[in-house]
Design goal:
This protein is an alpha/beta fold. It is built from 16 helices and ten strands.
Length: 487
């Protein structure tokens, strides 16, 4: 064992001496090379050579330091990488307690003081399937027709949101946050009789109390949040706590000051609000449904110059609808549907028949400045005649051209009243047939923008009213949130 250790040590020492000899030889050769170079290059040249090398290293160092890093992808590039169809961003749908939405559907018998609303909120908000249209619309399109309630949009939007291509389950990826509170269904039962202001505000205050507990709401004070209001904006703008005053005060509650809202009729001076089309009865299942209906109304043979669908409001002094109804019934060139004798509220074949059969349709004010019937009229390819500027001006700007005169006719209501309606026929008869055809073609091309497809339907390259709305909402919310954090 001792002999083995000595042998190993001897071998190690021998290798060490060999390495030392090799290093000494290398050092001698380097010194010799340096002296050889030194003997051939003057000293001042060596100094300049060293300075040049040092400056080159210094320049290279600063170039590396000043080069910009590889640019990080922009928000738009990141969104494009996630889904090329979601360049406007992603929407997150809050899972609210059922008391704020689906419970209204479950208790639909309690939504209206006069009648059940269960039919109106059925079929994802589309209502019952339309009947009696076999002689009015193409037979293979009848499954796409429902008797849809004019105030069902908040249910329709909620159901459509679940299958939206740009919905995200991760709130950190969301551009916008949708609050699925059925404020319209909530306030509907409290608008009449002896309910108090507190009754009308109770659920609105509760949902805002829930929201203020969410970090996604508080971090930007709600600037990236939005809500769909199924009724007119005026139903949510009570100014005082007077029990006799109309509506809730939802839109004036402090936590709503930054929340963007959609409604079927907006306040024209409110930048946080945008109007969307009333739901009609036609809910296409495919792009071919839309094309087939467009061709149908384009080629339909119309026998009347104009039509009016509505009812007199006997309790209203100087009721303008009464003027229109009396005049229409007296004119051979006008087709009237009197909703005092025909049930119109839940849909009726007679309404679509009248609009299909006329070039123009008379559209007075509804509960507000706008009217659901206007969209039923346009759906049939009939040109709306309106009597108050606010019916189109400033409304539906995301869906309809701002130049309303390209697809509508305006006649001032005071002038109509002064002539007992006779001015209407004079104005309409003066419009050349080629112009009428051109205006109808404009409506036909606009049609996809004001109908709501069925949830999960494939409309191909077509964007319907819902698609257009959500795309524009996300763009608006992204801009608002960027401004909020930049400031």
């Amino acid at each position: 064992m001792l002999q083995l250790n000595l042998s190993k040590r001897s071998s190690t020492n021998e290798h060490h001496h060999q390495d030392s000899a090799r290093n000494s030889k290398l050092s001698f050769e380097l010194k010799h090379a340096f002296h050889s170079v030194k003997s051939q290059i003057p000293l001042n040249h060596c100094i300049w050579l060293l300075i040049t090398i040092f400056l080159q290293i210094l320049i290279l160092f600063f170039l590396i330091r000043s080069s910009p890093p590889h640019p990080s992808p922009t928000n738009s590039q990141q969104l494009l990488a996630l889904n090329p169809n979601c360049q406007s961003g992603y929407v997150y749908v809050y899972d609210l307690p059922s008391i704020f939405n689906t419970e209204f559907i479950d208790k639909c018998d309690e939504l209206d003081p006069w009648k059940s609303r269960c039919s109106a909120v059925s079929n994802d908000g589309f209502g019952p399937r339309a009947t009696g249209l076999e002689q009015v619309v193409p037979q293979d399109l009848t499954p796409a027709w429902y008797w849809t309630d004019m105030y069902a949009a908040e249910v329709i939007y909620h159901k459509r949101m679940f299958s939206h291509k740009c919905r995200t389950l991760d709130p950190e990826k969301a551009t916008g946050f949708y609050i699925p509170f059925y404020a319209g269904l909530d306030i509907g039962k409290f608008l009449w009789f002896n309910y108090t202001a507190k009754d009308r505000d109770r659920k609105s205050e509760m949902v805002l109390d829930w929201l203020k507990m969410q970090s996604t709401f508080t971090r930007a004070n709600g600037v990236d949040h939005f809500i769909m209001l199924g009724r007119l904006t005026w139903d949510f703008r009570r100014l005082t706590d007077n029990d006799s005053e109309w509506g809730s005060s939802l839109l004036y509650m402090p936590l709503m000051k930054n929340v963007f809202r959609l409604s079927v009729e907006k306040h024209q001076n409110d930048d946080l609000e945008e109007s969307v089309p009333y739901p009609t009865s036609f809910h296409p299942r495919s792009e071919s449904d839309i094309v087939q209906w467009q061709n149908y109304i384009r080629n339909y043979k119309r026998s009347k110059l104009f039509s009016f669908v509505g009812a007199k409001r006997e309790k209203i002094k100087n009721d303008f609808r009464g003027v229109l109804m009396d005049y229409c019934k007296s004119e051979e060139n006008c087709r009237a549907v009197d909703c005092a004798t025909t049930v119109c509220s839940d849909g009726a074949p007679a309404i679509m028949e009248a609009f299909l059969d006329s070039d123009f349709c008379l559209q007075p004010r509804g509960d507000g400045l706008t009217r659901r019937s206007t969209f039923d009229c346009m759906l049939a390819g009939s040109i709306p005649v309106y009597f108050w500027r606010g019916t189109f001006k400033g409304q539906y700007e995301w869906h309809l051209p701002w130049m309303a005169e390209t697809y509508t006719v305006f006649i001032d209501h005071d002038n109509v009243r002064d002539t007992n309606g006779t001015l209407i026929q004079k104005v309409l008869e003066a419009i050349h047939k080629d112009k009428v055809k051109e205006m109808r073609e404009t409506l036909i091309n606009l049609l996809p923008k004001f109908v709501y497809g069925k949830p999960g339907s494939d409309l191909g390259s077509v964007k319907d009213a819902f698609d257009i709305t959500i795309d524009r909402v996300l763009k608006r919310l992204k801009s608002r949130r960027d401004q909020y954090f930049d400031s």
